[in-house]
Amino acid sequence: MAFSNERDEVAHLVKFWSSTVKIKKYLFFITEGRDKSTKCLQYGSRTLASFLVTRNPKVAAKFAALTGTASDGRKIFRLGKFLNEYVKVKAILIAFLRSRCKSAKLPWDECHKTQLLQLISRFGFLCYWVLDNLLLLSKIKFLGFDTKKLAKLCGVFWLIGLLGSLATEARTLRRVQDDEQNHLDTLERDDTREHGANLEIRAKEAARTLRELQQEKRAASLNLIKNAADLVVASNLAHLPHKIFGHPLPEGTVGTAGFISGAISCYQLYD
């Protein structure tokens, strides 16, 4: 199967769209950093509004208004973000097709399964971002789509993307844990065989490898927590609790989950 080597104009546009700025010694993504910071503001305000609604309705109303404003502001930040997902979906799809073409007669290996999960996840997010943009344009009356139906569809595709991402991160975490244990077992066996300078060199290499595995494990664990928190928000947006329990999830629960996800994202971007 032949693939074109010409410059991908969409990828080039995304590179421009997601340009970075240096703050001290940290690289902070302009669009992502603002979006996730505003997400903390949005869901933090939502949590406070829920907490204060019976204690101080006037202050609760202010936080509720801030929640809506922050939500709309984030949608503006995310205009065109579906292009990022298009690039990701295209890259994963090409890699998946290439690997399957090379091993069409062989059973699926772990790499193929992971690529398929990533493809499902990114496709879900691609549809979510497209619908999110349509929702914003409909809210400002530029388009005439039903905003309630669009919001529900956003929740459905967000849910699909998150479930695929959760499965991918769970597989990553399991793989890293297995690699870490295998590495420790190998190191323990080698300790009984090697001495002197060789042992010291091996120990340094092992320490570096273990640090890398621990960093990867921490990243996967944080992603699992973040996606699980977003799952609460997405399921509520998709009206799953409405069908299961007959009512939406409490505002405080949704707000807290969204804030946790936003805080983790900010930490990951700034770390």
From TrEMBL:
<keyword id="KW-0472">Membrane</keyword>
<keyword id="KW-0576">Peroxisome</keyword>
<keyword id="KW-0962">Peroxisome biogenesis</keyword>
<dbReference type="Pfam" id="PF05648">
    <property type="entry name" value="PEX11"/>
</dbReference>
<protein>
    <submittedName>
        <fullName>Peroxisomal biogenesis factor 11 domain-containing protein</fullName>
    </submittedName>
</protein>
<dbReference type="InterPro" id="IPR008733">
    <property type="entry name" value="PEX11"/>
</dbReference>
<feature type="coiled-coil region">
    <location>
        <begin position="196"/>
        <end position="223"/>
    </location>
</feature>
<dbReference type="GO" id="GO:0005778">
    <property type="term" value="C:peroxisomal membrane"/>
</dbReference>
<dbReference type="GO" id="GO:0016559">
    <property type="term" value="P:peroxisome fission"/>
</dbReference>
<keyword id="KW-0175">Coiled coil</keyword>
